[in-house]
Structure formats: structure tokens, C-alpha cells
Amino acid sequence: MKALLTAITIIGFAMISWGQPIEKANYKTMIETADSAYNSNDYINAIKWYGDAYKESKDKNLSALMADVYFKMGDYVKAEKRYDRLVNKDKTGEFSEDRYRLARTMLYQGKYGEALTEFRTYASTTEDLDGKVSATLYINGIENMDKLSDNIEAVVTPLDKVINSALSEYSPRQYVDGTLYYAALVGKKAIEIKDEETAEESTSRIYMAARNKEGGYDEPIELGTQINREGFHQGNLCFSEDGKRMYFTRAKLNGNELGDYAKIFVSNKNDSGWGGAEEMSSIQGDYYTTQPTSGQLYGNEVIFFVSDMPGGFGGMDIYYTTVLGDGYSSPVNLGQTINTPEDEITPFYKDGTLYFASQGYPGLGGFDIFYASWDGSDWSDVTNMGFNYNSSYDDQYLSLTPDGSKGFLTTYRPHKDKKSIKGSKACCPDIHQVELRDIIIDLLAYIEDEKGPIIGGTVEVIDLSTGEEPSTKSNFTTNDFNFLLDSDHDYLVRYSKEGYFPDSVAFNTVGVLDDYTVKKTMVLKQKPPPPPEPETQVVTKNESIRLNNIYYDFDKSNILPDAEQDLFYLKEIMEEYPSLVIELSSHTDAQGTSNYNKRLSQRRANSAARWLTKAGLDKDRIKPVGYGESIILNQCIEGVSCTDDEHRFNRRTEFKILDGPESIIIKTPVSNWDNQK
């Protein structure tokens, strides 16, 4: 039986369902309900019930499941927090394999530096050979980002709200008359799936939307039953070069997984529209066929498509079949020059170049878009399309208009108008338009410090004129950053680098109408190194611990301002150990009479104890004791001449455990006296 493949690989979107909420449950029911929801891809309820169960049991395995659910939902921020706690607090290695997903959550958020560290750690420690290979692929992608094209002329923007909804839109293709065809889930609002009958209704359909005079799109129209068949998902469409044939995929899904049916169909256009669709039977078998696109090879019209048929190189490979009149030849695999052990999907062919998405080559995140050129007999090496076309998110379905000046792609990347579903914007892909600028106004930003260029920084460009989402780039190999700008706009540029104070600069492009590069270099100031982490020590009963900063002026018992930091820390200790009872002892120097010093030390101990009780501690937990001059710590006994600082060293406060825990852990104090020696 062939392995189940995800909907995003075959159809082009992630199918997430939402079940009927349950009001109350015991722990066992919580787990059973969460597991059932998880297995049904009802991630919203799975998170709720795993979360409620975790609150009750604090079972780390439930936290791991919650991280997995967030990851599957594409909510990488929450997934990262869960994985980070699991991995970095794991003392036994139980969750060591989760470091791989921790790295991926960082990668998908564009945290390339942090992801690189985690991938390297994982690759050097895992015993999973496939995991090591995959992590190495991601490492190569991050390390070679500087070699990718900036594509500064390519402007990628989301389509109108009339096209993009909170659910999935994908596989955009422009017809010869300029009409946009694409696939989307039925309806323009979130669907709450409560039972099988409702689930059947939430299928993907193919739509068409005409361009209007304003340059946007009219309200989409769902194609008829010749194309959209009830109970199936329709998508992944393309057209023959003459526009007379439309190819598309019909598939059965079980939640977020593919069932036993995914086939390519073809419909011919006639005077009344698209005719009834017929299966491309000559390429079908006991395997999946999907994502067709028309092209040319060896002077013949061919249909490229994606399949997991036996004899391939990995999960999903790209194949082609030659058009033979009304029939098609046997499928041919494009070979290892194109296909990898991972998935190659969403092909598009234009003028001798094949564009496709893959996870099998070094890239910027999940699926990246690549291309290879055909010279008449062989394919060139595969090249990453680079920035703008690709992001840290999944990017797929690149298609271009006939003149090549515009195009479309499907991406999960966020944008300010992205709609949320059940409070999350991480669910589903949107269609973006790609336009190539004729006039290039750009920013070339550099980060330096007083010594020269520094790498590993981040630059964020904010368009103050539009309020759109900031454009952010990080660079781990050089110190330069390139951004596309618009004429007559105001901008704010923020520069940052770990270990440095951030800084910013504002500028505008007023009056700039031709190609122009704005150059801005920022010299960042380095932050001082953080203080070292204090060492700790174990304190047992009746062991005196000196509070280094609680000193007193001569013949005084009031608390000096510098002393409060130690009293605050002593308060924290007693709050950490609520059963702790201490002796708080005070000592004087040897100046004055013994009786007087005894009384003075008692007043000082009482003063420190009052400070603690005013801070909220129970007075019965603090026993103030004055020892006078009976315990001198240096040479300054009675009759010995000493400086005031030397006498002051003996005017101190200490504490020791009288009752409660047998031992406690405290920060190791550093003696001021030692520093004076």
C-alpha cells in the first residue's frame, strides 16, 4: 500500500478541520478527545485538550504533542517556544530529536542564525542518518544565502481581498485573455466541520476572475460541474499554449492526508465554455498524478506533471508525457538532474525553462522555487530563484504571463491584509502577484562598528507612507542589504546586531524618478559585556553566611542604601524557601566599649529585621541577634590602630539557618575585604 502524502504536496494546501467543542472532561477524556482531534487534523481542538491535560499533569510528552500540533498548523512562534523548553531542559536526551523541528521553526520565521546553530548541533549529535542528511541540506542553504540573487526588481504583493480569503488559494494561472484562474476552498469564510456531511462540502474548487478597469479583479466565478465535481478536490490547473485545453487534478482527501485517488483530467474548450473533463488514462496507475503544466521538449508538446509512481528518486518526482493527437505517451521521469530524494512539485514551463518547487535543494526555508534550462537535449543544473520569489516560508506555484513581465506564486508568507482563521494567520496560503520593475530605486544598507564591517546583522525597512509590513533581511556572510524602494515615499531603516545597541535612520525618495541607489551605512555601538553569572553554593544549618553589602556608619544602626540589594536578595531566598527560619546577626568593630557595642549590634540586627518584615516577611521567621565586637574578622581588635575602612569591614550582618530546610542554594558572595588585600 502506498504511503499517504500530505495535501500540500498533492493538492497545494493544508486541510485543517475544526470539530464540535466539548465543554468539560476528566483527564482520560481530555487525552482521548485530543488524540481523536489530532488524528482528524482538528488541530484547534487538539491544542485545547492537550493544553488542558498538560495543565493538570505537566507531562512533557503532552507538551511535545502540543509543539507538533503548532508546527503542523504553521504557528511556528508557539511551536518554537514549546520545542525550545523541551530541548534545552532535557537532561536525559528524551527529546533530542525535537531539536530538528526546533531548528525548522526558527528557519521558517527567518531566524537564520539561531536555526543554523540548532541544525549544526542536531547534525553533530543525531544517530538518525536521514535527519542528518536533511539538517545538512538546511545548513548548506543558510550558509550559501549570500550567493542567491536579490531579485530587487521583482515586486511580490498579495492579490485583492476578493481573491485571497482566510482559507487556501493556490495554483494561479492567467488565461490567454487575461482572466485569472485559480483553486480555492469552497466559500469565502472559515468552515466549521462538525460531521462527515459537512466535511464533504468543504472541497477545493476552480474559480475564474476577470480583470477590471481599476487593475484588480471582479468577483470570482466558480466553474461549472464539467470541471468541479461534488465530493472531490479540484485544483492544479494549467492551459495548453493555444488555450483550447485545460488540465487539472481531481483528488480525494481524508482530512490533511491524501486518500487513494489523485488523477489528472483534461477539458476542451468549445463555444459554450469548458466541456466535460476526461481522465488522462494513459499516464494513470496505482499511484498519484497531479499538478500538470504544458511545455515543449524535442520539438513536441508535452505535459509535465508530478507523481509518486514506482521507479522515481524520492517522494514526488516531475515527469512528462508527450501529446500524441488526442492521446499521450507513457510517462518519462526528468531524471536526477531535476528530481531528488525529497519532493519536487508545482512545475511551470516557459521558453525553455522549467520552474518548480522543491525541498531537495538548499534554500531559504520550506519549499523554495527553482529553475533549470533545457538546451534541446539536457537540463542545466538546478538554480534557486533567490530572494523575493522565495522566503523563509513555503513558496510554490510560480507561473508567468506570456511576455514574462508579470507572474503569480502561492506562498504562506505573512502580510498586513492576511486574514486569520480561528485567531490564527498561520493556516493557509495566499496568491501573490509578481511584477518586474522597469525603474529600480533601491536601498543599499551597510552595518559596521568602529572597527569596520560586521556580519550577522539585521536590517528592517519601514515604509512610513503606506504602513505596510516592514521588510526585514538578515545576512550571515556579508554586511550589505538590498531593498527595493518606491518614488516619493518616506522610510525608516532600523539596524540591529546581537551584542550591539540598535540604531535607525530616516530618509525619503521625494523627486526620484529614474534608476537610483540610496546608500546608508550605520555604525553600531557595541554593548558592554554582561556581568558573569554568579556562582552558587550550598548552605547547611548553622553555617554563617556573610551579606557583603550590609555595612553601617560608625555608631549608627540605620540601613545604608547600598545594603538594600543584599536585603532584597535575602528576601528572595526566604520566599524561595518558605519554611526557612534564620538568625540575622549583626557585628560591630572594636571601637568603643564592649557593652555599648553589644547594644549597638542588637539595634543594627533589629534594623535589618524590621526592613525584612516591612517587605512582607513573617517576623517569626527572623531572629535578630547582636554579637557586638566578639567576632572580629581582621587584625583590628581593641587597641590596634586601623583605618575607618578596615574597621567598617567588621561592621557587618550575617545570617544562618536555624530551622526549615537542611540546606539551601545561594549565590556565592564575593568578599569586599578580599579585594582590598
Beta-sheet strand percentage?
25-35%
What would you call the structural class?
alpha+beta
Please tell me the total number of domains: 3
For the sheet with most strands, the description reads:
5 strands, antiparallel
Overall mean pLDDT: 86
End-to-end gap:
80 Å
User: What is the highest CATH level, the class of the largest domain?
Assistant: Mainly Beta
Task: Give a concise summary.
By secondary structure, the chain is an alpha+beta fold. Strands 6, 7, 8, 9 and 10 form a 5-stranded antiparallel beta sheet that branches. Strands 11, 12, 13, 14 and 15 form a 5-stranded antiparallel beta sheet that branches.
Describe the structure.
This protein has 13 helices and 36 strands. Mean pLDDT is 86; it is low at 1-5, 187-201 and 670-677. 22% of the residues lie in helices and 31% in strands. It is an alpha+beta fold and 677 residues long. Strands 6, 7, 8, 9 and 10 form a five-stranded antiparallel β-sheet that branches. Helix 4 packs antiparallel against helix 5 and helix 5 runs antiparallel to helix 6 (98-108). The N and C termini lie far apart (80 Å). The protein folds into three domains: 154-436, Glycosyl hydrolase domain, family 43 (Tachylectin-2, Chain A, 5 Propeller); 441-523, Immunoglobulins (Immunoglobulin-like), CATH 2.60.40.10; 536-676, OmpA-like domain (60s Ribosomal Protein L30, Chain: A).
